[in-house]
Amino acid sequence: MISYPSVADHGMVGDLQTAALVSSDGTIDWWCTPRFDSPSVFASILDAARGGHCQFSVDLSDEDGVTMRQLYLSDTAVLVNRFLAPGGVGEVADFMEPIDSTTPTDRHRIVRAARVVRGSLPFTFICRPRFDYGRASHTLTQIDDHSAILHGPGTDLHVQATAPVALRADGDDVTADFTLAASEMAAVVLTSVASGEPAPAPPSLEDIADELESCRAFWVSWLRSSTYRGRWRDMVHRSAITLKLLTYAPTGAPIAAATMGLPEQIGGERNWDYRYTWVRDASLSVRALIDLGFEKEAHAFRHWLRDRIEAGGTASGDPLQIMYRVDGDPHLTEEVLDHLAGYMGSSPVRAGNAAADQVQLDIYGEAADALAQGHDMGAIRGWKAVSDVLDWLAGNWDRPDEGIWETRGGRKNFTYSRLMTWVAFDRGIRLATTHSRPADIAHWTDVRNTVFKQIVERGWNDERQAFVQHYDTDVLDASLLLMPRVGFLSPRDPAWLSTLDAMDRELVSDSLVYRYDPAASPDGLRGSEGTFNLCSFLYVEALARSGRLHQARYAFDKMLTYANHVGLFAEEIGPSGEQLGNFPQAFTHLALIAAAMALDEQLDRAEIRPDSDTGAPADTGWRAGGA
Fold first, then answer.
1. Whole-model pTM?
2. Lowest CB count within 10 Å: 304, 305, 413, 416, which one?
3. Hey, is 614 helix, strand or coil?
């Protein structure tokens, strides 16, 4: 039986235009180039037999004698795999030098550098690309013992090695076996280029060392802009680096995750392509970076978003599509890659995303909130884009949509969509007032007030004593955990505390939070899913702002135990604590940042005593019979 590494058994490296996943045994099993949303070169995480991979590790033929560890160099995106064996200790460092430029490039490099720090160890290198999601064949041109080219459709992959790595052909792939003693080093560089482009210069160990230092210095310097000085600096900064790695530098557009097709349930069909820019996810990601002091990234995204508004022309006639490719292309045709088995047999594997054609009215609230954070929306061009959208929304807000969770079970009057419509008008009114810009403020105010009243009257369920998922149900929905944060009501409002209590009883399991109950609110898909990490961190934030600080801190500390060994999170947590869904997930990391900052703020305001926790148990459940 073919084995797969766990989703969590990976670190990520990237150059701000593309990213690769590296497992703890030194295998690159996911890499798309030249962009995040390009077809894959390595995709063995989706099909171990046909997907393609690149392994660089200590010879694992006697695997029982080798212990593997993985870590990042502190405050960087340089990933190190350590191999501890009876004969010695070795390391393989993987990194991609950041291309922090507004110019896209077809040339991308993964540097893989090995060294032995004690004893002597045998190494194995295997490069088996499978271009175009494993659909295309390739040919091999071997130049010499240290250089080879693998030719795919439209893309050449150059493999260049330093001594003593001697490449040899293995069919149309390349491999090598070599031994390093203490203090010895070797490196292999993978460079993807457009077909026919000149070969890169041969690498030297001195050049590799300089590049690694340059990459390290970039990330350390970038983190200096962070204003975060709270209690969880390591996790917050790792999340910030992850969000930066998931941002396409040429346009400033953040993607939702680095991967596609990783399942929300092993063997299930909820296997989506997340390598695109959702207006919602990107707006919230940028808000998290703004809160940490990273203004450059926020400025770039606001311009990308403004350009999307001005482009208009979506298939639905709405001003914005819910997601785009990183260059702003709205065409994300979904196809099933039925030649791929899927992660641990989880099929279908989908590329593209048909949800791009859905109507999700909440995106206008997230977009307006992101725009309102900037200092450049007073500019005439920027303001016109905002004003035109709000004028359109004033006549189109009161209609059903597919909602934040992109359900495929029909449109409904989702309470969260109405909530974010309220946010859109609230932020638009603030912008117009702050910058003294022309706007029909009176009409926008009337609409905002009408939306507020509708949510209170129709989104509230007297029987449940809670705000509910949509107007025709009594089902709870964790997206409404954002209600206090966006300012719709106070976090101490009795209606909110009652809603939070209802969620505690029904959606929360040992600090882990489900989005909603699919059995009670069918979403048009078979199977179930794990708890949703975004919601679990939103729950922590809501608890903290509601004054339930003991409960909030314990829930946060427990959530951090679900991070993988290098501090990364996927989309969901499964029944046994396993990570599920696409990885790493921007939604999760932005929510971790928000939760940490909210906890810091509330903890700084109050001395923590049992009687200071409003409406929450002070003992965190550790009593006889406690949950």
1. 0.95
2. 413
3. coil
